[in-house]
């Protein structure tokens, strides 16, 4: 099957349905996540599948579904995508728009579960129950942008994470939310079994950077594969989390010229 052209220096997302959505549909859904990050995350889901990691995924802060639809298209048959949101901003009709966007772009009710509520008030057993009793292989956190809310979302995601799972954090290093990094560093200090797997660089100030986290015991296994998969998107210097080092994936991999 031919893969649609999804833009300059974007990696293949590993799924024809994701590529088609990114090429002709992504921009039609209201949202702020970048196409570059969506392509990377879809390919990471494919990497998990190739490494024998299967199961449901979740997005905290689904909004109108732009990023959620890309993730859902990257799932294998029988896998479930959970969309969690308070669905009240900017108006209550946002939930209807989310459902309509999913339907329009081919994500059917049997493939997804829509959960209207505050993830920060959920217990791990609640979320796992929505996932049919299974832990999650991938959680994208794009909820309320406060330290307290992010800390709660991280705790929930970690408690529900399956072996080989990944947690993706949106709007990292965004100038509008400078204190989120405080919550992330506190979390990493308190959870040494979790490490950054990579940073997905910003596309614009709106399409901000994401951090991808994984279990420490999976880091080398995933990184070895990613060095080949994303060879054209790797920024040479990487990210130093003192002392942990991880990849930076970017559309612009140039280094500053020193004259």
Which keywords apply here?
9 strands; 259 residues; single chain; alpha/beta; methyltransferase; transferase; 8 helices; Rossmann fold; globular; nine-stranded mixed beta sheet
Can you give a write-up of this model?
By secondary structure, the chain is an alpha/beta fold. It has a single domain (16-249), classed as Vaccinia Virus protein VP39 (Rossmann fold). It has helices at 16-23, 35-50, 66-73, 94-104, 124-130, 147-160, 180-190, 216-229; strands at 57-60, 81-85, 112-116, 136-141, 161-172, 194-200, 209-215, 239-240, 245-249. α6 (147-160) links the parallel β4 and β5. The model has no long low-confidence stretch (mean pLDDT 95).
Give the N-to-C terminal Cα separation.
47 Å
Number of strands: 9
| Helix content class | 25-40%
Strand line-up of the largest beta sheet: 3-2-1-4-5-7-6-9-8
Number of domains: 1
| Cα Rg | 17 Å
List segments where confidence is low: pLDDT < 50 over at least 5 consecutive residues.
none
The number of distinct helices, counting runs of at least 4 residues, comes to 8
- Dominant shape: globular
Q: Find the CATH topology.
A: Rossmann fold
Output the CATH class name: Alpha Beta
Query: Structural class from helices and strands?
Result: alpha/beta
| Series of H and E elements | HHEHEHEHEHEHEEHEE
CATH architecture: 3-Layer(aba) Sandwich
Q: In percent, how much strand structure appears in the residues? A: 15-25%
Instruction: Name the CATH superfamily classification.
Output: Vaccinia Virus protein VP39
Tell me, rounded to a whole number, the average pLDDT: 95
Major sheet summary line: 9 strands, mixed
